[in-house]
Specification:
Number of helices: 9
Shape: globular
Helix content: 25-40%
Largest sheet: 9 strands, mixed
CATH architecture: 3-Layer(aba) Sandwich
Order of helices and strands: EHHEHHEEHEHEEEEHHEHE
CATH superfamily: Acetylglutamate kinase-like
Number of strands: 11
Strand order of the largest sheet: 4-3-5-2-1-6-10-11-9
CATH topology: Carbamate kinase
Number of domains: 1
Distance between the termini: 47 Å
Structural class: alpha/beta
Strand content: 15-25%
Length: 248
């Protein structure tokens, strides 16, 4: 029997938006979480170490609440608490599937989650546990995209996997522009200069400074996360050494 091929990304961080948990509506869609759990269980079976950062937009988005008149700092803290709700729902589902999971929160709440400590997160990963990082960075004015990039760098991930509803980075929104072209590889600077909707500018800059690849992929296609850690070409890769891309 031939030996298994080494993983391309033995340790990665998966960034999932809160909207993904809602399945297109508000609240938490249990069916969506169960399908995601199946995907994560398949990834765990490869031996890959996977950290996760979850958003909370299906419950409350801080920027939206502040636009409606709420104090921005209070609204952002409420959004962070929403991410903890999603993290606990995901932990419950993953552990029922037989994969030990720990929720680490940037806002201390010991009754439901461990405090986020970098070395503790790494130790959990080394022991084969999934690590769900909640409450963003613990600071207002920072998105969960930035939290994902920060946690990925802190735990020494080989890549950050950005889950979306489309199969990569396009020159324009493919739902609105039929001439949009998918970019299999694109540079950090090009993403920033062209305003491509990958992650916010702070997150992109953090990844660029630390040479951390961003893999943008379609979460709705089954098996994509496992394919990525195995090195199969999935979605688009944002990196420093991207070749020339089509002009949009």
């Amino acid at each position: 029997m031939a030996p298994a091929r080494p993983l391309t990304y033995p340790r990665a961080l998966l960034k999932i938006s809160g909207e993904a948990f809602g399945g297109g509506s508000g609240g938490i869609d249990v069916g969506v979480i169960e399908r995601l759990t199946d995907e994560l269980k398949a990834v765990a079976a490869t031996g890959a170490q996977l950290g996760l950062v979850v958003g909370g937009g299906n419950i409350l988005r801080g920027t939206t609440a502040s636009q409606q008149g709420m104090d921005r700092v209070s609204a952002d803290y409420m959004g962070m608490l929403a991410t903890v709700i999603n993290a606990l729902a995901l932990q419950d589902s993953i552990e029922k599937a037989g994969v030990p999971t720990r929720v680490l929160s940037a806002i201390e709440m010991r009754a439901v989650a461990e405090p986020y400590i970098r070395r503790r997160a790494i130790r959990h990963l080394e022991k084969g546990r999934a690590v769900v990082c909640a409450a963003g960075t613990g600071n207002p004015f920072f998105t969960t995209d930035t939290a994902g990039a920060l946690r990925a760098v802190e735990i020494g991930a080989e890549a950050i996997l950005k889950a979306t509803k489309v199969d990569g980075v396009y020159t324009a929104d493919p739902a609105k522009d039929s001439t949009a072209v998918r970019l299999p590889r694109v540079g950090y600077i090009e993403v920033l200069n062209r305003g491509l909707q990958v992650m916010d500018t702070t997150a992109i800059s953090l990844c660029m400074d630390n040479k951390l690849p961003i893999v943008v992929f379609d979460l709705t296609r089954r098996g994509n996360i496992r394919r990525i850690v195995n090195g199969e070409p999935v979605g688009s890769v944002v990196t420093a050494d991207a070749g020339a891309s089509p002009k949009g």
